[in-house]
Structure prediction request, 474 residues.
Amino acid sequence: MIPPRHREAINDLLLDYGALIDGDKLEQWLDFFTDDCLYKIVPRENVVQNLPGVIVLCENKNMLIDRIVSYREANEYNLHYDRHIISNIRIRDLPERDAYAAEASYAVYQTNMDGESRLFSVGEYRDKILIQNGAAKIKEKVIIVDTYSIPTLLATPL
Amino acid sequence: MIPPRHREAINDLLLDYGALIDGDKLEQWLDFFTDDCLYKIVPRENVVQNLPGVIVLCENKNMLIDRIVSYREANEYNLHYDRHIISNIRIRDLPERDAYAAEASYAVYQTNMDGESRLFSVGEYRDKILIQNGAAKIKEKVIIVDTYSIPTLLATPL
Amino acid sequence: MIPPRHREAINDLLLDYGALIDGDKLEQWLDFFTDDCLYKIVPRENVVQNLPGVIVLCENKNMLIDRIVSYREANEYNLHYDRHIISNIRIRDLPERDAYAAEASYAVYQTNMDGESRLFSVGEYRDKILIQNGAAKIKEKVIIVDTYSIPTLLATPL
Prediction:
């Protein structure tokens, strides 16, 4: 049985997650992760075939921070707006205290500077979320992208 | 007034429905239906013009099982991954005991083996859901696809 | 703290909003607005650069009614079906009594009379919603479209 306030905190976390990326508030987005977080993007082909290859691997929050800093300083290509549609959120209790598994489907659209909106990536989130001092934090975020062949530079987080 | 635990069971059912198809767990997906279920895919053009044509019609669970068995044994074309985005879920109480109407919008994306993700179908679900021994089951699933012209073989369920 | 019945009323409003447009029940859709409502469509480019240009501006319900009436009487182009996917709904309490801010992401698909479904617009809703006599009503609807370049005539509301 998941306490309603935990369920609400996890739901809000997952939805704000998308809103902060879309709103280009990536520094605030970093606050959603625990210091020892795992952030991983893996192609579904590899998950299905049990292959080890990943697209992005950050094994703690400092590695995530590095990505955002370098994006802020270096990114000159693929200027765009992101738009996340996050749906089908399902939350399960884990044996550990105040720990939950959350799964969701996502579709991310990008709009480029010529004004074209198009589908960028679809896939799913498999998160491990902890409730710490009443706040929900991401301990693990595994993003399974339905295709390896992402059409442009993966600049902003998924 | 819908009891919160019924609302939650129906929500979970609708969301797991998409997750099981996307995860290729079609045999588990079958468990969501009552034995005397109706599963029907109808094009919106026909609904609007009151025409009788349907795309898929299964009038009980055995017919659904047949579809899944033949998909497992015979499907060689249109290999792909599905991804459901199910949103705008609205639940209404029906006069019968423990019976509800649920409506939702969906977008289904398919990713083919060349790694292209694209929109496959958009439309809506109109479900009749029963609560039986605490579990939500689909008595009727009417899927209104916004267009008849589905670009490829309709192999996996919508 | 948002009373659960207010949260539910706002959620239902936002989801029915999309369903009524998609179902071509635009006259019923008008009932969701207060008489002194604001309905505004602004391109994200302008929001980001703080530019004043808007795509659509209705400063009260009569202006919205005019749009629907003229659509009913005059529209001969861009015949299509709409399909709204509304997700990432986030609701905040406002200082005023029974007033809330609601934000959501949307993707709208259109299906034309040749049977092609395609992405029409992605963006976000920023609403101010009032609870009046137990019913949720839209006082302000600001729709930020991710691109100005909407590919066809903006006939039906977003």
